[in-house]
Design brief:
The chain has 81 residues and is mainly α. It is 69% helix and 0% strand.
Length: 81
């Protein structure tokens, strides 16, 4: 029993396991790599955004605390120490 070649009977390069299956494999690997890079970039961007929001909240909270303490001193009536 002779197995039919998927390349149509044309001889391929030495060590070739069939052009069609290798092309399909490379497309799948390429798609996986592109998806992996895309997800990595999105997660990196989300991480940087969360870090930025944290520091904005810390700085804003500091400014708010200083302003609240300053206003409390200005609004006191009576004896100041």
């Amino acid at each position: 029993m002779v197995q039919e070649d998927i390349t149509g009977g044309r001889p391929g390069p030495a060590g070739s396991c069939g052009g069609v299956s290798m092309d399909k494999f490379l497309k799948i690997v390429g798609a996986v790599v592109v998806i992996w890079i895309g997800i990595s970039l999105v997660l990196w961007l989300i991480g940087k955004t969360i870090g930025l929001l944290f520091w904005v909240a810390v700085i804003g909270g500091g400014i708010w605390a200083v302003a609240a303490i300053n206003n409390k001193r200005k609004n006191q009536v009576g004896y100041r120490r």
